[in-house]
Structure formats: structure tokens, C-alpha cells
Amino acid sequence: MSDEPVFMEDSDDDFIRPFLVTAGRTRTNLTYLNMETMVRTTGADPSRLRFEASQVIGLCRGPLSVAEISAHLRIPLGIAKVLVGDLIEDGYLSPFKTVSASAAADINLIQRLAAGVRAL
User: Fold this and answer.
1) Where along the chain do its domains lie?
2) Is-contact 39 88, C-beta < 8 A?
């Protein structure tokens, strides 16, 4: 990880180093959490959350991907994954299942779909 600051706002004076947001962690414990994973709030009371986490909760009233959270908050994707992972583990966010790359590339599925299209 670079020593360069991550700018949270458009101003050069407002910045925060990523390791401060995640307490030095660069990875989440949740192995299924990908940039396309969709999450939304669970309705748990977020009143005790720190600033960045409460911003994520505010964004996720409707389904949002981890990549979209990263873009909205102008933070690196890895930092967003750690924040989202923490919020899932603490019960503030609920993930949606996404299709894994191996399932999407299943040749049998593709062949069945092609056969169905040809049958039309």
C-alpha cells in the first residue's frame, strides 16, 4: 500500500490515509465478498458507527455493489471491501448472492441456453 493520501473530497486539504479507516487491515475475512457483491442495510441501529461506516449505511438503504460504494465515497476498492465486510459481520449489512465466475462459465449451461435459442 502506498503512502499517498486518499482524497475523500475535492479539496487538497481534506484527506485520510486508508489504514486509518480500516485500522491497518487491507483484507476482509469474508472470502465471498467481491466488487460486484450487492449489499443493503438490515435495519440494525447504526447510531454507534464511526463516520465512514455510517456513510456506507446511508448509501445502502437500497441495494448497492461494493464497487459503487467505493465510487460514491471516493475510497479505494480494497478499503470499501474491508468496511463492507466489517458491517456484514456486525449485522448492519446483508449481502446478496451473486453468480460465481465458475458457475457463469459452465459450458453445459451455455450449451443449453444456445440450444434453447436455436429452438425458438
Assistant:
1) 6-119
2) yes
